[in-house]
């Protein structure tokens, strides 16, 4: 039997700030191998990843998470060293306690408790990355590509992100909006403001382009989703003089979009709008866009109902099936199977003195264990 608090503290004591691992993945692997999982390490670039499976038959219930954490910020502002995993008045304090080493520990502990009395009619698996808090190029995305190419079948997945809002189990995520970032550069000709005919001012072109982009109402929302939104995140000219027409003007935008759109369609629209804004400009307009994730929705059905029921039984909460918030690695896993997110209360994630009540760790373990039990009762019997 694995104790959730001991395992969470062991993981926190590894300062695995992206892209560093510093032994965090070894701790996960050792715990899973002790439970009979076959572990496969996948390293891409600097990033450590792990896929582990126990069993060979369907259905395959997967738990996904990440061992990497964000920087601590001002370490002196913490009440205890960020990677000490200190206990104070029944609260575990440390970077990653909530996001999401505590969640990983809870699911592993839940699996250990389940396997002590049960032989699942199917398989359990873990997909753990060290690149969720970074650019996510060499993490879950790459592992999913490998698993898909090999024909690995995962039937359903729970991502252990801290989805709960105020109380454990009051919210799970069944979808997320997509995200696209665009870098816009307008290059003109520098000159004296008194002789504009000798220059090509990039600033009016940039202003026109941003105005065109912001003028479009992307949508009025989508099933369970708020409307998509475009935000200008920076404008930079870098001109300190009052009598110079600058040579270059730059801007960056981000669009958070619901399933009414695909990233490639928005990317094409941004490029087309940029071309139109610069059509009569003697300089040039360049746009570089990156779609960091597509929008997805796991519609309500047997899997979401099963998880909600297990949460109700163990926490008493009538969980809200939400699509709010930013992005997570669920955006990649959805290419393999239906996926949802359920984890700790996220109030202190990324904050100074990130912390979780110890009782909440044990409550999350109990909820995860009930999900596993319910899952194989429901889907294991169906595949027998």
Tell me briefly what this model is.
The protein is an alpha+beta fold and 384 residues long. Helix content is 31%, strand content 25%.
The CATH topology assignment of the largest domain is Aminopeptidase
Biggest pleated sheet: 6 strands, mixed
Count the beta strands: 19
Shape: elongated
- Return residue spans where pLDDT drops below 50 for at least 5 consecutive residues: none
Number of helices: 9
Can you identify the CATH class of the largest domain?
Alpha Beta
| Overall tally of domains | 2
Fraction of residues in H or I helices: 25-40%
Read across the widest sheet, the strand sequence of neighbours is: 1-2-6-3-7-18
Structure description:
By secondary structure, the chain is α+β, with helices and mostly antiparallel strands. It folds into two domains: 4-176 and 295-383, Zn peptidases (Aminopeptidase, 3-Layer(aba) Sandwich), CATH 3.40.630; 178-293, Alpha-Beta Plaits. The protein is 31% helix and 25% strand. The chain is built from nine helices and 19 strands. It has helices at residues 4-12, 24-33, 101-117, 140-150, 202-215, 263-277, 302-315, 330-333, 358-383, and strands at 38-44, 47-54, 60-66, 86-88, 91-93, 123-129, 156-159, 171-173, 175-176, 178-187, 191-192, 229-236, 244-245, 248-257, 284-293, 296-297, 320-322, 339-341, 355-357. It has a six-stranded mixed β-sheet, sandwiched between helices. Strands 12-14-10-15 form a four-stranded antiparallel β-sheet, covered by helices on one side. A three-stranded antiparallel β-sheet has the order 4-5-19. Strand 4 (86-88) and strand 5 form a beta hairpin. Helix 1 runs antiparallel to helix 3, helix 3 (101-117) crosses helix 9 (358-383) and helix 7 (302-315) packs antiparallel against helix 9 (358-383). The protein is elongated and about 85 Å long.
